[in-house]
Amino acid sequence: MSNTFTNKLKSKAILVVLSVVCAFALSACANDPHGRTVGTTVDDAVLTSSVKSSLIADDLVDAFEIEVDTYRSTVMLSGFVETQNQIDRAVEIAKKTEGVQKVVNKLALKPKALSQRNPRS
Asked: What is the pLDDT of residues 67-107, one digit of tens each?
Protein backbone atom coordinates (compact mmCIF):
# COMPACT_ATOMS: atom_id res chain seq x y z
CA MET A 1 0.00 0.00 0.00
CA SER A 2 1.17 3.48 -0.71
CA ASN A 3 1.72 5.97 2.09
CA THR A 4 -0.98 8.26 0.72
CA PHE A 5 -3.56 5.49 0.67
CA THR A 6 -2.58 4.32 4.15
CA ASN A 7 -2.78 7.86 5.54
CA LYS A 8 -6.17 8.40 3.91
CA LEU A 9 -7.43 5.13 5.36
CA LYS A 10 -6.14 6.04 8.84
CA SER A 11 -7.79 9.46 8.61
CA LYS A 12 -11.11 7.90 7.67
CA ALA A 13 -10.85 5.39 10.52
CA ILE A 14 -10.17 8.17 13.00
CA LEU A 15 -13.16 10.15 11.71
CA VAL A 16 -15.39 7.10 12.05
CA VAL A 17 -14.32 6.53 15.65
CA LEU A 18 -14.73 10.21 16.52
CA SER A 19 -18.20 10.39 14.99
CA VAL A 20 -19.34 7.36 17.00
CA VAL A 21 -17.90 8.77 20.23
CA CYS A 22 -19.50 12.17 19.62
CA ALA A 23 -22.88 10.62 18.86
CA PHE A 24 -22.82 8.63 22.09
CA ALA A 25 -21.67 11.62 24.14
CA LEU A 26 -24.31 13.93 22.71
CA SER A 27 -27.12 11.42 23.04
CA ALA A 28 -26.23 10.70 26.67
CA CYS A 29 -26.29 14.41 27.60
CA ALA A 30 -29.39 15.53 25.76
CA ASN A 31 -32.92 15.59 27.12
CA ASP A 32 -35.24 14.50 24.35
CA PRO A 33 -38.08 17.00 23.86
CA HIS A 34 -39.97 14.53 21.63
CA GLY A 35 -40.51 11.92 24.33
CA ARG A 36 -38.13 9.27 23.02
CA THR A 37 -36.74 6.87 25.56
CA VAL A 38 -33.02 6.86 26.28
CA GLY A 39 -32.79 3.52 24.44
CA THR A 40 -34.46 4.92 21.32
CA THR A 41 -32.25 8.02 21.45
CA VAL A 42 -29.13 5.86 21.71
CA ASP A 43 -30.34 3.59 18.90
CA ASP A 44 -30.90 6.64 16.69
CA ALA A 45 -27.43 7.96 17.55
CA VAL A 46 -25.89 4.61 16.63
CA LEU A 47 -27.74 4.61 13.28
CA THR A 48 -26.61 8.18 12.60
CA SER A 49 -23.00 7.20 13.34
CA SER A 50 -23.23 4.06 11.22
CA VAL A 51 -24.61 5.91 8.21
CA LYS A 52 -22.11 8.77 8.57
CA SER A 53 -19.22 6.30 8.93
CA SER A 54 -20.29 4.47 5.79
CA LEU A 55 -20.54 7.76 3.91
CA ILE A 56 -17.05 8.73 5.09
CA ALA A 57 -15.65 5.39 3.93
CA ASP A 58 -17.17 5.77 0.44
CA ASP A 59 -14.95 7.36 -2.21
CA LEU A 60 -17.78 8.77 -4.35
CA VAL A 61 -19.60 10.62 -1.59
CA ASP A 62 -18.29 13.77 0.08
CA ALA A 63 -19.54 12.93 3.57
CA PHE A 64 -18.60 16.33 4.97
CA GLU A 65 -21.24 17.93 2.74
CA ILE A 66 -24.01 15.63 4.01
CA GLU A 67 -25.83 15.95 7.31
CA VAL A 68 -27.34 12.79 8.78
CA ASP A 69 -30.18 12.96 11.30
CA THR A 70 -32.11 10.02 12.70
CA TYR A 71 -35.47 9.94 14.43
CA ARG A 72 -36.99 6.61 15.43
CA SER A 73 -34.96 4.68 12.84
CA THR A 74 -35.82 7.08 10.01
CA VAL A 75 -32.69 8.64 8.56
CA MET A 76 -32.80 12.05 6.91
CA LEU A 77 -29.97 13.07 4.60
CA SER A 78 -29.57 16.77 3.87
CA GLY A 79 -27.01 19.08 2.34
CA PHE A 80 -25.63 20.06 -1.03
CA VAL A 81 -23.52 17.78 -3.23
CA GLU A 82 -21.91 18.04 -6.65
CA THR A 83 -23.67 15.31 -8.66
CA GLN A 84 -26.83 13.23 -8.83
CA ASN A 85 -24.61 10.13 -8.54
CA GLN A 86 -23.51 11.33 -5.09
CA ILE A 87 -27.15 11.75 -4.04
CA ASP A 88 -28.06 8.28 -5.32
CA ARG A 89 -25.03 6.69 -3.65
CA ALA A 90 -25.68 8.40 -0.29
CA VAL A 91 -29.31 7.22 -0.30
CA GLU A 92 -28.21 3.70 -1.25
CA ILE A 93 -25.67 3.61 1.59
CA ALA A 94 -28.24 4.82 4.13
CA LYS A 95 -30.86 2.28 2.98
CA LYS A 96 -28.37 -0.59 3.27
CA THR A 97 -27.40 0.33 6.84
CA GLU A 98 -28.69 -2.26 9.28
CA GLY A 99 -31.51 -0.91 11.43
CA VAL A 100 -32.56 1.90 9.09
CA GLN A 101 -36.30 1.61 8.42
CA LYS A 102 -36.74 4.59 6.10
CA VAL A 103 -34.56 7.17 4.35
CA VAL A 104 -35.76 10.72 3.72
CA ASN A 105 -33.69 12.34 0.98
CA LYS A 106 -33.34 16.11 1.33
CA LEU A 107 -30.04 16.27 -0.60
CA ALA A 108 -29.76 18.83 -3.37
CA LEU A 109 -27.28 19.67 -6.08
CA LYS A 110 -25.00 22.63 -5.46
CA PRO A 111 -25.74 25.66 -7.62
CA LYS A 112 -23.58 25.76 -10.77
CA ALA A 113 -21.53 28.77 -9.59
CA LEU A 114 -20.40 26.90 -6.46
CA SER A 115 -19.79 23.64 -8.32
CA GLN A 116 -17.46 25.30 -10.83
CA ARG A 117 -15.26 26.74 -8.05
CA ASN A 118 -14.85 23.38 -6.33
CA PRO A 119 -14.92 20.59 -8.96
CA ARG A 120 -15.48 17.06 -7.63
CA SER A 121 -17.14 14.10 -9.31
From this structure: 999 999 999 999 999 999 999 999 999 999 999 999 999 99
Burial 85-118 (b: 16+ CB within 10 A, else e): ebbebbbebbeebeebeebeeebeebeeeeeeee
82 φ, ψ to 5°?
-80, -40
What is the Cα–Cα distance from 120 to 65, expressed in whole angstroms? 12
pTM (2 d.p.): 0.67
For 39-68, the pLDDT digits (tens) are: 788 889 999 999 999 999 999 999 999 999
> Rounded distance, CA 113 to CA 24, Å?
38
The residues, any chain, with a CB within 8 Å of residue 109's CB and separated by 6 or more, are 80, 81, 82, 83, 84, 87, 115
116, 47, 53, 46: which is closest to 76 by C-alpha?
47
**C-alpha Rg value of the chain to the nearest Å:** 15
